[in-house]
Amino acid sequence: MGIEIERKFLVRGDAWRAQAHQVETMAQGYLNDLAAMEPVDGGDAAMKASVRVRIAGDAAFLNLKSRELGHTRQEFDYAIPVADARDLLVLCVGGRIEKRRHRIAAGAHEWEVDEFLGDNAGLVVAEIELGDANEAFERPEWLGAEVTHAIRYYNLALASRPYSQWTADERAGTAP
């Protein structure tokens, strides 16, 4: 079983752009939506994982990620033919997530800065994967507020309710 330990932050300014050493365009969608992740009538009858299809450059993947909120989740990622991914994207619910992923080295880690496009244009989020939940890491000067525990920043949530529909307080990061 794969375990992902990831922390997510807002990004301040554009200083990060000069540090990016690789950029990749991505399109992804979900075969289930955020509502499918919620328990029904207080029980546990909900799906327990998001199911994502992603095309990244010339590669495609099917990804399953457990529904836990926070920085640690189970994750399974499988390479699939790009033609299959295109067919699966047609079956996805909610909107398609389109973004450019910029990779930035910082200390012993690599940041992934996602610059969202389409209905999520204007949102820029940085993610770092860690080997341990308490692992120390270098915090670049362009790193803003941590949003690891805020569901609205999860790609699955952005497919259901994109950034273009957020209130001014949500966009500023001041809404709960």
Automatic annotation (TrEMBL):
It holds the Pfam family CYTH. Residues 2-160 form the CYTH domain. This is CYTH domain-containing protein. InterPro entries: CYTH-like_dom_sf, CYTH_domain, NeuTTM/CthTTM-like. The active site is at residue 30. SMART domains: CYTH. It comes from the Bacteria.
